[in-house]
Amino acid sequence: MKLFLSLFLFSFLLSCQSEESSSETLTGVQSCSFFEDSQSCWRQSVAFAETCLWGVGTQGTLAGDGSQCTQGGRTITFNQAVNTSDPTATEDWNFEINDGAFCLAFEEEGSDFTLHTRDYGVFRAESFGSVIRYTCPDESTFTVDGLWALENCDLSLMPGTSTSSSGAPSFSFSFLGAPDVSNRGFSCQ
After folding, report:
1. Over the Cα atoms of the chain, what is R_g?
2. Burial bucket for residue 160 (CB in 10 Å: 0-12, 13-18, 19+)
3. Minimal CA–CA distance to 83: which of 74, 75, 71, 92?
4. Are 24 and 143 in contact (CB under 8 A)?
């Protein structure tokens, strides 16, 4: 009788899960469609992130301790200071952009990251060995089961970031997959 009640309770709890949340496993060519779709939740997250820096055409000024950069009226606060002697060696980027109010937060931990935008919500990328799971602001998830599934994809559209430097302490930070390549992130020196 206890076993029956346990199984019944387990079945009941499974049936009570939210039906709004969807999960899709992507393999092979289908994986590329998630990255290439201009309406994917990653590309939409990046589009909303770009609004935090619209119209900013100047390079920002980096504080001597690497804790903050001001750029065109925006403040970028680094919760983990930028390595000012070699900005691209900065591990686990963690910052917020404020344009008079909270605009976005980005937090990286190893190969996992979270992008939280004021107007779109939270996008998460998490890796589990060779499996990558993307969670969209609406809580839908997309999973790439095996990195081999990405071999024919344009990896510049894959969720992620890029940093570059033309010499310390100058650097640029950008989001991959940005719909508008003219404004992909920010630069500080």
Report:
1. 20
2. middle
3. 92
4. yes
Q: Which two tokens stand for residue 30?
A: 């289908």
Mode of pairing for the β-strands spanning 74-78 and 94-98: antiparallel
Cβ atoms of 96 and 102 within 8 Å: the answer is yes
pLDDT value at residue 98: 95
**DSSP line for 54-99:** TT--SPBEEPTTSSEEEETTEEEEESS---TT-GGG--S-EEEEES
Q: Which residues of the chain have pLDDT under 70?
A: 1-31, 55-56, 178-184
* Residue 76 Cα distances to 47, 142, 184, angstroms: 18, 30, 15
pLDDT of residue 122: 98
CA atoms within 13 A on the CB side of 80: 13
In the three-class reduction of DSSP (H, G, I as helix; E, B as strand; rest coil), residue 137 is classed as coil
Structure tokens at 154: 């344009």
- Assigned token pair, 83: 């390595």
Cα–Cα dist 108/24, whole Å: 24
Asked if 151 contacts 159 with a C-beta cutoff of 8 angstroms, the reply is no
Cα–Cα distance between 15 and 105 in angstroms, integer? 35
pTM for the model: 0.81
> Which DSSP symbol is given to 154?
-
Are residues 173 and 185 in contact, defined by beta-carbon separation less than 8 angstroms?
A: yes
